[in-house]
Design a protein that fits this description.
Layout: H1 2-11, E1 12-20, E2 25-32, E3 38-44, H2 57-65
Antiparallel strand pairs: 1-2, 2-3
């Protein structure tokens, strides 16, 4: 892990994060060292309260049967 972090620090100059509210996207711009190149990544911004943790239907059925 330490080597990976050192490699990233050697290659990346900085990372800029911006939020496009109209399209609900998070825009990451990576500025690479040595040459002025950059890469842009767009990620969907989750809705308020949206997350990966969801109770399965089987668990809900057990809870409702009690």
């Amino acid at each position: 892990m330490r080597t990976r972090q050192q490699l990233v620090r050697a290659l990346v100059n900085d990372i800029t994060v911006d939020i496009d509210e109209a399209s609900r996207e998070i825009i990451l711009t990576i500025h690479w060292k040595g040459g002025g190149c950059h890469s842009e990544f767009r990620l969907r911004k989750p809705q308020s309260g949206e997350h990966e943790c969801v109770t399965s239907d089987d668990a809900l059925a057990v809870i409702q049967s009690i």
